Amino acid sequence: MDQALKEQEGLLERRQWTKVPSLLRPGRYFMQGDEACAEGAIAAGCNYYAGYPITPASEIMEHICRRFAQLPGRVFIQMEDEIGSIASVLGASWAGARAMTATSGPGFSLMLENIGYAIITETPCVVVDVQRAGPGTGQATRPAQGDVMQARWGAHGDYEIIVLSPWSVQEAYDEAIRAFNLADRFRVPVILLMDEGVGHLRENMAVPAETPIYQRWKDPSRPPFGEAEVPPMPAFGEGAKLLVTGSTHDAWGYRRTSSPQAQQQLVERLANKILNHREEIQRTHRHYCDESNLDVLLVAYGFTARSALGAVRLAREAGIRAGLLRLTTLWPFPEDAVRELGAQAYRVIVPEMNRGQMLREVQRVVPHAIGYHRTDGEVITAPEIWAAMQRALRSDKKHVLEGKEQER
Amino acid sequence: MKRGTTASIVKYIRPRTFPTPFCAGCGHGILLGAILRAIDELELDFSQMLFVSGIGCAGWIPSPHYNTDTLHVTHGRPVAFATGAKLFNPQLNVVVIGGDGDIASIGGNHLIHAARRNVDITVICANNLIYGMTGGQVTPTTPRGAHTRTTPAGNPESPFDLARLVAAAGATYVARYSVWHVRPLIASIKKALQHTGFSFIEVLSTCPTQYGRRNENPTPVGMLRALKENCVTMERAKTMSLEELTGKTIIGEFVG
Ligand SMILES: Cc1ncc(C[n+]2csc(CCOP(=O)(O)OP(=O)(O)O)c2C)c(N)n1
Ligand SMILES: [Mg+2]
């Protein structure tokens, strides 16, 4: 992209940001993760919600249903299934809504074709997946982190997507807001990947006085599917004569189903509009990572990061230089932060409630990383991570095989 | 200019979209025109209309040809997409156009639920009795005994009576016509567009390429003639015996 256009887009991006007073009175609240996610969405201006009941995500729908009834101009509907839910969310988004749906694994699986549709048509929306133990129906009330790769790759085709994973009730609120803003900023579906642990957790959180809002850029004079890195998106009924299609298309939406050039241009732009803005999207947190050469670095996300922080504290008490790199953005994978800290750490452990989905991604940039897994529908505790850290430190092999840690 | 004429409806066509991609003898083009004629005769504000369609030849009726907001979605889901757009912006005049496979097979669940909810949209199903786009496989509306790519020995299953199905699901306007019966079809589309609540029109369309060819009716004219001969109005049907009605399709308004 030429420099002038880039600068113009930068200016424009800053113009679209505003702040609005938060809907809830600012202050401290004792809330459940699912409810906080719903409140964050409401604060972010979510005005269309469609869903279908499923444990452990139903509380989001029920809370939104109750709250929307008190707020004018917000539409709630319980659809006939999850395919209908995401489809109606995308229809509403093009009609100008800030739209969301929430589900768990089985429903998320059903939504994936239309999430791919949202990618290629650049339709902003927020999809919450409160992960439970799978595959299949699995254990509906048990936590897991088994959908990390599904959230990244579940729809067919070649694409980039944004996936955020909160570790607390506070972050469920904050990241729900960020999810809506990123969705409109980059015209992309944003997956809020919660887990049953965070979804059903109750703890204190704070509502700030103001909520940052990114307002969709609507200019009807420029093509809605190209030219700009993130093109403008007018709504239906505004006279833009939108031609929206999930088939490969040119900048104005005309189908180009056999042009190699159109296909490549579209796929590359859709990926690069995310990859060129990684710093803006990626959010990571360093806990006790001050020393340049750590004995052990934990890389964790979601509910498991809470136990990881506990384990770091146990290690510190024992005089070990331990730290936690917590990932709030899972995709695009924050590889620079992981590489930088991981390279300097003697041992790197990735605890997660799956068989090592994020571990493989960490190993891509930190080859000596090892995993610690739990697949029994129980959360991982701090003492067991601390025990795994001790075993790793005792081992003289730099690369401890994953399988060793699996025999718990 | 007289409204509803060809000269009067070209203004609704998006630039650079003609000729259409439809095969010779395809009935979808007649429906494409009939919908525009109805809109023109009603003098509706075209800029406030949204056309939602799924995947299939019928999905190409509005997209890209209609020069207003069009949303061409995944196979089977246009009714659900339309529900979201309409609920969020009730000012929009939302019309779904899709094939029998799109609307009645993969999208059947959305169809009956939208009818049950009485969502204020119009659904027009271009029923050519076949999966046209994918090369002529059996659909839920293919007649018993008909030959298709996936029923080479004749269709062993019974078809849906779509109009009655949607009526039973609670739609508040339901009609069935064909691309041969253009005048009553246009009148029916006008009613559906003005109707508040869920309206549904099943439009029998022709597919000589994928259906006629395999069922002893390979020509465009032959297929239109079959529509003319096999469709009987509700009024006439009342005077006919069961025997006389075998193999006939009843057209007219079922609800409304
Ligand atoms: C999920 C999915 N399944 C299958 C297809 C392949 N497909 C494309 S068009 C079509 C059938 C269209 O038939 P119909 O809706 O009757 O429309 P027609 O072409 O006959 O007008 C199918 C099965 C698809 N695009 N998506
Ligand atoms: Mg068909």
Description of the molecule:
The complex is a heterodimer of chains A (408) and B (256). With 408 residues, chain A is α/β, with parallel strands linked by helices. Chain A has 15 helices and 18 strands. In chain A, the strands form 4 sheets. In chain A, strands 3, 4, 5, 6, 7, 8, 9 and 16 form an 8-stranded mixed beta sheet that branches. Chain A has a 5-stranded mixed beta sheet with strand order 13-15-14-17-18, sandwiched between helices. With 256 residues, chain B is α/β, with parallel strands linked by helices. Chain B has an 8-stranded mixed beta sheet with strand order 2-1-3-4-6-5-8-7, sandwiched between helices. In chain B, helix 2 (28-42) packs across helix 7 (182-194), helix 4 packs across helix 5 and helix 5 (108-117) crosses helix 6 (162-169). The model of chain B has no long low-confidence stretch (mean pLDDT 98). Chain A binds chain B through residues 47-48, 50, 75, 77, 79-81, 83-84, 87-97, 99, 113-114, 117, 235-237, 239-247, 253-255, and chain B through 14, 16, 47-48, 50, 52, 63-64, 67-74, 77, 80-89, 91-92, 109-110, 113.
Count of the separate structural domains of chain B:
1
**CATH superfamily (homologous) name of chain B:** Thiamin diphosphate (ThDP)-binding fold, Pyr/PP domains
Broad structural category of chain B: alpha/beta
The unreliable regions of chain A are 399-408
